[in-house]
Amino acid sequence: MTDIQINISNKTYPTATKPSIEDLKLSLNSNEFTCLVGPSGCGKTTLLNIIAGLDNDYDGDILVGERHTHPKIGYIFQNPRLLPWRTVRENIELALDGNQSPEVIDELLEVMQLTAAQHVYPERLSLGMSRRVAIIRAFAVDPEVLLMDEPFVSLDAPTARQVRELLLKLWQQRPHTVLFVTHDLREAIALADRLIFLSASPMRVVSEVIVPIARNERGNELAIESFRQQLLKNHPEIKPLL
Amino acid sequence: MPTLSLLAFLALWQGLAIYLNSNTLPTPIAVAKVFWQGCVSGQLPFHLGVTLLRLIVSFAIAMLLGCAIGIVLGRNKKLDAFFDNWLVIFLNVPALVTIILCYVWFGLVESAAILAVVINKLPNVIVTIREGTRALDQDLLDMARCYRFSKRKTLVHVIWPQLHPFVMGATRSGLALIWKIILVVELLGRSNGMGYQLHLFFQLFDVASILAYTVAFVAVIQLIELLILKPLDKKALRWRR
User: What is the predicted ipTM?
Assistant: First the structure.
């Protein structure tokens, strides 16, 4: 795995009067789980789309190791974006480029508890199951960076917690560089190695914090809440962003 | 229920024909007799076959070209703006004008007949497929780009399934439109086919033969719907609840 440097000097939408993103510098360390926390509408999805190569209208540069290029990505969108006319397994297989073995899909389906549903069409899946399929698809391509755009939004709390735990299990088994976007601080603390707080209009890095909670303690809600309180006390600059 | 409605129609027709007792409306039985005689003599299958061949060739050309151009125009705003007015003009040129011009410019030959049918149907297919392409789900196209789908993979697995209802719409309306145009094409400039035969029967005032040929053609179109289009629909939409 390779470290990724993101430098965006300016991203302004054609109809906007001021930039959405200005002088943003991010480094993603190999196999690290990084959470971007910022208010709604601050441009987090725009940033992910730039990294993914979906938006090329910006000034800046992305460096993957020594290469000036967009990284190979796995993207988990807010909406799972599965092809409704392909089964669960076919949706995952279509994302593969032929270099991965089919057994990988079997293993991923098993970890995400979807083996029984692999030949089912997405319309017959619950939202939580669809999100799990999207997670499998993203891991299956063995990406250089996994982009996750609030993948648990609109799930009820127990389902969100279940999918989050499965995601962490999968990530611990198959470590990848992750860039996870959320506006939920508790969720970010439960998942991340490192938190990056972003301001809006234009988007800039306000603060960076390493999460010191051990991985086996991330299910402990008291530990999460205690760190959250401590964070808000020690970093008053992040309060307006939440 | 469909059988019942068909039987009711036949009964009404029979009753009306007996009541009027005129050559202009023969009974269904008289039409069936003419139909059978036409089959036995081989005249009906021959002319029906010629017309069907023209239908298949012109339909295939119009659909293939129309789908390709429709997708390109739906995805490219500049090209769409360039051709939009022409599309509207060709949509509104009367079929008869195109047919006459094709015969005048290229002669009373088979290729001119096919070209006239294609020119009449093509704008219709282009507009339908262009609308379908404009309605494509951008989220799914972005997903395909993120996961580096090849152009072929994107077309087959992302674009084509979304265009399916539009293609089927263009197919159904196309079949209905094309066979009507083909009859005019045959009537004006061919020496065989259903249109030529109908013209002949019209001069002889032979309504029974006109109806027998019409029934034969409608039956073939129904068979195409039943044996090809409906199974295609079923296969393509099997993912729906």
Answer: 0.89
